[in-house]
Predict the 3D structure of the following.
Amino acid sequence: MAENQPLLGSNCGEVMCERETTDQRKSETSSRVVSLDIFRGLCVFLMMLVDYGGSVFPSIAHSPWNGVHLADFVMPFFLFVVGVSLAIVNKIALDRTGATLKVVIRTLKLFILGIFLQGGYLHGITGLTYGVDIERIRWMGILQRIAVGYIVAALCEVWLPCQGMKGVVLFRNYIRQWCIIFVLCAIHCGVLYGLYVPDWQFSVSQSTGSTTYEVKCSVRGDLGPACNSAGMIDRYILGINHLYAKPVYRNMKECNGSNSDRVSASMPSWCHAAFDPEGILSSLTAAATSIIGLQYGHILVHFQDHKGRLYSWSILSFSLLVVGVFLDFIGVPLNKSLYTISYMLVTSAASGITFCLLYLLVDIYGWRRLMFVLEWMGKHSLSIFILITSNIAVILLQGFYWRDPQNNIVGWVVTQFVHK
């Protein structure tokens, strides 16, 4: 077993938010939380697994609509890790304006990178061309959602720091950040259930011409794929041509499981429509996940012993789980595409429980060597995401072919194992 010493200490005395000395800061920031690196690496590994294995094993791919599969935990895991990392890296900001500027710049870099990787500029592992029509570029995506979670959680940490109340629990010291979580959830719930969705039309361009479809709605509070308010907001603000063109709900039986460019004309009209699972409304509760991760990071920083950390994390995780399951029981479905409150709570709880287990195995029992691959992946997560998960390495590899551009190793693998 590893030595029972905290990885990050907080010598703040009775007032937990008292500023540390310069030497203490250097000592704390020089220590890495190994379990957090491994958790980040696990996120990257799971993303690779579900992206490349989901077509072979549909049970691990994204749930078509309500419910959760393995793939539906990946994004919340990433957002959770963002929050935990912020609590460790960001100390009390003496220059809040300067800190805010740094946060905004980092967010813009991540957002722009996401547009390049997932905006349609790259044409996938079977496409030998590149480039995107600006009128059809996808504005939202995985990195863009992480950027939103990052900026919201970071600004909470900069402008709503610990209040420094003596003799009170950690929850009370960060009550303003919990209020932000509540406000985000309230706005999400109010808009999702309260906004009226009228009938709507859209056009789909095909080789034979353009076809116009009409979707009958005229409802309020519908959480189905056709008439939810989240999709309506994205269509009005972003434009339907800028949404994800192959929504996962095409795997539903109503759409005959046709998650491809070709959708039968006999299917419901909404099966032909684009829908973005990383849309505007769902980004509110996604950002709440990062703020929840921030609270786990506060526990890591402020508690001195392993037992106190694990106890606090466990209480918080199971509390979130109970509330999330209860909401699902009373009719708020677990839905990743809409990022419902029940889904946010359950996946945040799963993130916390996973982090507890990794912390126990790695930082307490010392099983670090057994997970060195995940640790390495966690330290290079963005590079791996760009090269592997976003298919950059695969696209470069298929540039080497035998006589015909289609005769390359990537095309052979796809033909033999994916489209077989």
